[in-house]
Every structure is written in structure tokens, then in C-alpha cells.
């Protein structure tokens, strides 16, 4: 018996109910959904539901926090919880040493402190990153030197690093932006050849892998963040990974007022500056509970991101961020892609973001032009920098920091989706692609709205 409902409507209805995956059907929603009008033009939302919220927790977090509360040992000194977390995270990463600290910024600050970075030193960083990467350099009165972005990957352009090296360069600090590995082979090769330590800002890259090994274990040290938005979350928190025992001890000492690390510091004199950046037992408890889910979540994000990239490959003008050949897993803290307005009938990125949001797909333009931000360029007028480096060097610094590829990426092309969205279903991914497909189809009409 033929039903009145035709096959297309039926499948579309199933897809809207989120059951097409469960029934093992192929993705056929696009045909109907992409024929509907964009939400901004009065059509139905492509993604009417909600994405998984963040953070996630259950009784294991509740119990772990109460256990710490009742133990009356709330700080790591004299406690066991942070130490247990360090051991487990170190094993998860396959690193020799791990130190919990109060934030990702603290992790980077401790690493630079242990390396005795200071006035007169230069640190190479990308402009396409969270401002903390820059701040930790400036907190030490060192000079942050920007190296342009590889627009295809959103990562630091490893081929341009050597050009930025001077006799003052003391650290190369790549960031694994969005949780995907930067081009580690090339970066490490420059570091080795020029004898400059590589410090990995892995604050977004928990469990990301390069050639089957976790990032954060390749350079002298890696820094991780457990801030609320990150894939491993204790509200605030961070960790340092390193395979160098002496360096691990110096980091411990630096984060604990110069106490309890070791007698012989990594660098002569580096035992003489320190602060308090300790993690609490409450944070350690949260992290142990959250960590039980992180491997499974990372797998799911990778599966969904791979599927979304496949669906996006059918849409002209949408290019997912390239993963370098060595990448065996991304943390997908962000799903990053490039939007080409020429393929969207002249619709600009702001209009695209507005139309996509209206479809029930939260999205953002991502990082801006950090090297041109007034907060950063103002460093050339900082009285201490003028005293340390002189006016001429600071003016030259402004000129050195040109990043033309990053300008294009951050002002016109970059688009982000957040990690929690990748914890959704396959249907969620299909609806994201349907939303973009609709916007592409109606781009000329949308450009006039
Ligand atoms: C989050 C983040 C940091 C800083 O981490 P906090 O824990 O917020 O201090 C540093 N670098 C990058 C790339 C980050 O994303």
C-alpha cells in the first residue's frame, strides 16, 4: 500500500527527528533541506534542536568534590589528588613528567620562567592564537615576534620561522590552534638546527596526536589549559608536560615559590625567581572525573569533524582547515573553516555568520589581527620596553610584525564552530551542512538583506 507521504518527505521527517542515522539511512536530507528557504528569509531552521551543552558532569564529579571537601585538605601541599591527576595525565600523554598549575597561562609563564626568559630575549609566536600566548612573553619583558599564519591550516607557517630567528631568539612557541597539530616536524627541525628550545602551546590540544604521539611531548615542554571552555575542564587550571627531569623540577620550584623543586636548577640562576601558581585539590578532583571521558569525547569529535568536512567538500567556497600529514588525531577544540565570499555571490563573512546563526548553528569569526591590535601595538610605547629596547628597536618591531596571510584569514575568511557541537549526532553534522548549503544557494538574496 502506498502511503500519502512521499519518500522524500518521509526521509526529511526522519532526519528532522534525528533518526536517519539510527536507521542506517544515507544522508538524503540535503535535497529537501537545501530547497527550503534560509531562516533569515523566512524558512525553517536547518538545525532546530540544541547542541550538547558544556560542561558535562555526573555523580562522579559530585562525589570527587565532596570527598575533597570532607578531607579538609583543599590544597595540593599535603594532598594526594593533584599528584594523582599529574600521574594519570602524564600517562595519558605518554610524557615523562607532568605538573599541574593554576591555568594554561600559568603553564606557559612557568615554562618561560624556568627557561629564564627576560628583557632582551625574543620569543617567536603566531598571531592566530589566544592573547595569553602573547601575554606570557610580555610579562617577562621579552619581545614577542610574530610569524605569519599558513592560511590553509590556520597554524603558524613553519616555513617562515627561520627567517624570524635572530641571535636574541630564545624560544620558538608554536600553538596547536583549534586543537590541531602545527607542523611539528618542520618546527622541531628549525629548533634543533638553530639550537632554540621549542615550547608547545597545547592549551587547546588535549590528546591531539602527531605521528601517533601526543602533542605537548615533542618540544622541551608543552602547556595545557583546563579553563572552562577547554576540552578538559576544571573551571581554571593548567598543566606542563616535559620529558626533561631537570626542567620538570625547575618548573615545580618556579610554581611553588622556589621551594620543593631541586637544588640544581635547569639554568644557573633560574631558581632565584618564582611565584605561586599551584592547582587546588578541588580542581584536581574535577580533572580526574572529567578525564574519564576525554578519550571517548576526542574520538567522537574526530568522527563528527571528519564527516562534516566530507559534507562541506560538496559546497563551493567552504574549505575546512587543512591538517598536516603528521596529524593522526586532532583535539578539535574548534572546527575551523574558511569562507570564500566570491563563491557566495558576494555575501560577506559577517552576513554569512548572521545567516548561519539564524539556522540554529552557533558560529563566530574567530581570532582577529593580534599583531595589529592596539593592545599589542601599544607595547611600542610601553615605558619599560622603551628603556630596555630603545625607540628604534620598538619601531622596527612594529614593522617586523607584518602578517599578510593572517590579515586575510582573520578579517575575511575564518569561521569557527565550537567543540561541544562536535559532541552532537551525525544528524547535527548533516544539519550544519544543510544550513551552509541553503545559504550558498540563496546567497544573492541573502546579500541584499
Ligand atoms: C586557553 C588558552 C591559553 C590560556 O589558558 P588559560 O587556562 O585560560 O590561562 C593559552 N593559549 C591558548 C592557545 C589558549 O587557547
From TrEMBL:
One of the GO BP terms on file: polysaccharide biosynthetic process
So which domain of life are we looking at?
A: Bacteria
Q: Which CDD domains match?
A: AHBA_syn
The alphabetical list of record keywords is: Pyridoxal phosphate
One GO MF annotation is: transaminase activity
Keyword Cell inner membrane assigned to the entry: answer is no
Query: Keyword Phosphoprotein: yes or no?
Result: no
Q: Where are the bilayer-spanning segments? A: none
User: InterPro entries attached here?
Assistant: DegT/StrS_aminotransferase, PyrdxlP-dep_Trfase, PyrdxlP-dep_Trfase_major, PyrdxlP-dep_Trfase_small, TAT_signal
Q: Which family does it belong to?
A: Belongs to the DegT/DnrJ/EryC1 family.
Protein name as it appears in the record: 3-amino-5-hydroxybenzoate synthase
Amino acid at each position: 500500500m502506498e502511503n500519502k507521504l512521499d519518500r522524500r518527505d518521509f526521509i526529511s521527517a526522519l532526519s528532522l527527528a534525528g533518526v536517519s542515522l539510527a536507521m542506517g539511512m544515507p544522508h538524503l536530507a540535503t535535497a529537501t533541506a537545501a530547497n527550503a528557504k534560509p531562516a533569515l528569509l523566512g524558512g525553517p531552521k536547518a538545525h532546530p534542536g540544541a547542541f550538547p551543552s558544556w560542561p558535562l558532569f555526573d555523580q562522579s564529579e559530585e562525589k570527587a568534590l565532596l570527598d575533597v571537601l570532607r578531607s579538609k585538605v583543599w590544597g595540593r601541599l599535603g594532598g594526594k589528588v593533584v599528584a594523582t591527576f599529574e600521574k594519570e595525565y602524564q600517562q595519558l600523554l605518554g610524557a615523562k613528567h607532568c605538573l599541574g598549575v593554576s591555568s594554561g597561562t600559568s603553564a606557559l609563564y612557568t615554562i618561560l620562567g624556568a627557561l629564564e626568559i627576560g628583557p632582551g630575549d625574543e620569543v617567536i609566536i603566531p598571531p592566530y592564537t589566544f592573547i595569553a600566548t602573547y601575554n606570557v612573553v610580555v610579562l617577562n619583558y621579552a619581545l614577542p615576534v610574530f610569524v605569519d599564519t599558513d592560511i590553509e591550516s590556520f597554524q603558524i607557517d613553519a616555513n617562515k620561522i627561520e627567517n624570524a630567528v635572530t641571535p636574541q631568539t630564545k624560544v620558538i612557541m608554536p600553538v596547536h590552534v583549534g586543537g590541531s597539530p602545527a607542523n611539528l616536524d618542520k618546527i622541531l627541525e628549525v629548533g634543533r638546527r638553530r639550537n632554540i628550545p621549542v615550547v608547545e602551546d597545547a592549551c587547546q590540544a588535549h590528546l591531539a596526536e602527531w605521528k601517533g604521539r601526543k602533542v605537548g611531548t615533542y618540544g622541551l615542554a608543552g602547556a595545557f589549559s583546563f579553563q572552562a571552555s577547554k576540552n578538559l575542564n576544571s573551571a581554571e587550571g593548567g598543566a606542563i608536560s616535559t620529558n626533561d627531569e631537570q626542567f620538570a623540577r625547575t618548573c615545580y620550584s618556579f610554581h611553588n615559590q622556589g621551594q620543593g623543586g631541586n637544588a640544581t636548577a635547569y639554568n644557573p640562576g633560574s631558581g632565584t625567581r618564582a611565584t605561586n601558581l599551584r592547582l587546588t585539590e578541588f580542581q584536581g578532583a574535577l580533572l580526574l572525573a572529567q578525564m574519564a571521558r576525554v578519550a571517548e569525547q576526542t574520538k567522537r569529535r574526530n568522527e563528527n569533524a571528519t564527516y562534516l568536512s566530507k559534507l562541506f567538500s560538496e559546497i563551493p567556497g567552504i574549505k575546512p582547515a587543512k591538517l598536516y600529514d603528521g596529524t593522526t588525531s586532532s583535539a578539535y577544540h574548534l572546527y575551523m573553516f574558511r569562507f570564500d565570499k566570491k563563491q557566495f555571490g558576494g555575501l560577506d563573512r559577517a552576513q554569512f555568520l548572521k545567516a548561519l546563526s539564524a539556522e540554529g548553528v552557533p558560529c563566530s569569526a574567530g581570532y582577529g589581527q593580534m599583531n595589529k591590535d592596539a593592545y599589542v601595538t601599544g607595547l611600542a610605547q610601553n615605558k619599560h620596553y622603551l628603556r630596555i629596547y630603545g625607540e628604534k628597536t620598538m619601531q622596527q618591531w612594529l614593522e617586523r610584525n607584518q602578517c599578510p596571510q593572517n590579515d586575510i584569514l582573520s578579517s575575511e575568511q575564518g569561521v569557527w564552530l565550537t567543540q561541544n557541537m562536535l559532541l552532537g549526532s551525525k544528524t547535527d553534522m548533516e544539519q550544519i551542512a544543510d544550513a551552509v548549503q541553503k545559504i550558498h544557494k540563496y546567497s544573492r538574496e541573502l546579500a541584499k538583506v
